[in-house]
Amino acid sequence: MAVSDGVMRSALAPVVGLLVATAVLVVTEPARAAPSAEAEAWLDGLTKRVVADLAAGKPLVVQAHVPLCDNDVIPCGNARLGDGDRPEKNLYWATSEGFVGWFGRRGSGWKQVLDADGDAIGEDHVLDLRVWRRELVTPAAWRRAGAPARFTMVVVAEAWRGEQIHRAFTHYADDLYGVTNHPVKLADGTVIAAGGDAHIVAYVGHNHLMDLAAFDWAAVAKRADARPRGAIAIACHTAVYMQDLVPSERQVPLVMTRDFLLASAAALEGGVLGFARGGDYAAIRKGAAAGYADGGDKPLGRVFGAFSNPADRKWGTGSYSRNLNLHAELHKAAQGK
């Protein structure tokens, strides 16, 4: 997809960069609503897929694509945090709210079971690849539907070279629609069904849709398979770009955003644990917001409104930013063209 004109990039990038570096949020009012019956059916369908796989002895798999923060894309705070070629120092990977920092924190409940790079999946631009695992008690409703008393949850996180953000985003889209898959083999020989075989597919990084004149979701959808997957996009203002184009019975909208924020591993963890504990849309949304609040040491009420899904009364409405709304409309108009 072509990069948008300089006006759009120059108008948005400084604001995004400033707020990425400071993690300031302006939306504070919790807004809750009853999801539509259609959206509820989507979540039920995803849950049924997960329960069937757990009953078959498989883990619940989360695939996360993380383009490293890169000062050549947006300001990341300083040279170290914004070196998109060095995951070991990067804002989105190595800090306390980055993936290695957050999932590796003391008492996290996660066990790292793989420390590799893109060679493990045949992708040169994945600079670091980690897999974390934890055991969870199965929600009662899932047990009644046939799942075992306990199950394994796995997070596969890929740190993409920062300047390859477009490649990272297109891989996210392909995985979300089941176009691609890449099994990940652990040291003990266990093979994780990652990529498009995952149950939940997440993007955590700068909102690349802000940089593009359009992204043709319709073209990706033409190659989709029939399995449902949870969709997560933790980046600045993903809802306005995605809520009218992506959600469906196959791409179930678990977590999107309505403000400028930090691409936080803590928010991802909170959202996926909300789902894994049998939560509805409201619980999943609250889990993501609570994770973000914990990771950034912020009051939950201050950040709650930045997270959105069908339990949000603002779901399906525009952003508070006229420029973002106009740009999102251009994305909609370009679908299938």
List keywords for this structure.
single chain, 337 residues, alpha/beta, eight-stranded mixed sheet, two-stranded antiparallel sheet, globular, disordered N terminus
> How are the strands of the biggest sheet laid out side by side?
2-3-4-1-7-8-9-10
Helix content: 25-40%
What letter string, H or E per element, gives the SSE order?
Answer: HHEHEEHEHEEEHEHEHHHEH
Give me the count of strands: 10
Shape: globular
Main sheet record: 8 strands, mixed
Spans where pLDDT lies below 50 across 5 or more residues = 1-11, 18-24
Distance between the first and last residues' Cα: 11 Å
Structural class by SSE content = alpha/beta
How large is the radius of gyration? Answer: 18 Å
Strand content is 15-25%
What average pLDDT do the residues reach?
Answer: 92
Total of DSSP H or I helical runs spanning 4+ residues? 11
Number of domain units: 1
List the helices and strands and how they pair.
Elements: H1 6-22, H2 37-55, E1 60-67, H3 99-103, E2 111-116, E3 126-137, H4 140-144, E4 150-160, H5 165-176, E5 184-185, E6 191-192, E7 200-204, H6 217-221, E8 229-234, H7 238-242, E9 251-257, H8 265-276, H9 281-296, H10 300-303, E10 307-308, H11 322-333
Helix pairs in contact: 8-9
Describe the structure.
The protein is an alpha/beta fold. The protein has one domain. The chain is built from 11 helices and 10 strands. The strands form 2 sheets. Strands 2-3-4-1-7-8-9-10 form an 8-stranded mixed beta sheet. A two-stranded antiparallel sheet has the order 5-6. A hairpin with a 5-residue loop joins strand 5 and strand 6. Helix 8 runs antiparallel to helix 9. The N terminus is likely disordered.
